[in-house]
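Data availability excerpt. The first of two example chains:
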Amino acid sequence: MSGVEFLLLAVVNLGWNAPQLSLSQDTITIDGVPLELNLALSKEEVGVPDVDAPSKSKSKTRTWRGEFPDVLVGFTGGVGGQLASPVGLGLGRFMGRGSDACGALSVAMEWRGQGPFVRLGFEAKRWTEQAYAASALNDSIYGLGADGMGGLEQRIRFTYPDLGIELDTLPMPVSAIPVQSLGFALSLGGTSDAHRRSRRPGPRWWLGAKGQWVRSARTEQQINRVPEGALPSPANVLGTDRNDWESTQYWAVGLHGGLAVPVGRRGWECLLIGDWSGGSAPRWAASVGLQKRWGNR
């Protein structure tokens, strides 16, 4: 058989068997009649989430890193008072008053997460303190004391050659002196666990360190302290030369804490603030007020 005849035979045989091969893949022939097979194919859906599997979006934990902070503006009013210092006892406390009114305007930022948060606050505060005029001190004074009616009196003693010693009292004029301060506080706080689980805004608390610059409107003749166990300096001694003098401008550091409780749904919160400062002029203060929050609530 020649090569041409072999090639023709192969092409004819391939043409005859090709339909049979393709038919055998899909059909079965019975008595020459092809039987079609209808195969029901089922497709398994892919990517259906497991109902019991936790959602990744819900398992993410918010942190304060890299987020914009909440901004808060608040105002408070309350009372505060002087504590004992190396100079002596505050005049208000010495007279039995104990505290004076104070008010503050504050601006703060909070970096929040599901756990603790960081709070940076700035505050402008104003209060009053009691002071008397040193120019009214009598040369025959032997003591200062409260007059029993919220005021101050000086106790004087005169010695007469014929009559002996005469004791008397003289009223001391007392004034309310304004004091202003600018301060900042860095605090770490948290949120109530019960409210966090219910996804409702809950009370927030914080505690941290505070620094403030204080300026009093007292003059060199106005005295706000009473030295313990000693008489005040004479009337002609002024300012820093006196033994009962407290500086009118100074820096103070201390502790700052607060509690904020949401009121309504528009970002308003009720504030409760407490402060303590040490140093040369220790002081305490407690106040209540409102603040407005802008940010993610």
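And the second chain:
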Amino acid sequence: MAGSTDTITVRVNVDIAVGALKTIVDTAKKRVGPDDQGHYHVDTADKVGEMISRFLLENNFEEYVHHPEHFSG
């Protein structure tokens, strides 16, 4: 997704459920595993961004924004 000519990276604040964040962190750590000293080398913030980006792409966010009723205020 990032780096594609059809997308740009936008830094935003997003509200997500604490349980969802915990699941992302736990799963990312399990996938990379600890090093010899028990440390995990995974950027969980990047993983959250990747997952949100994938979700937006798979759920056609581009089409969603074309509907004025989805804008509040």
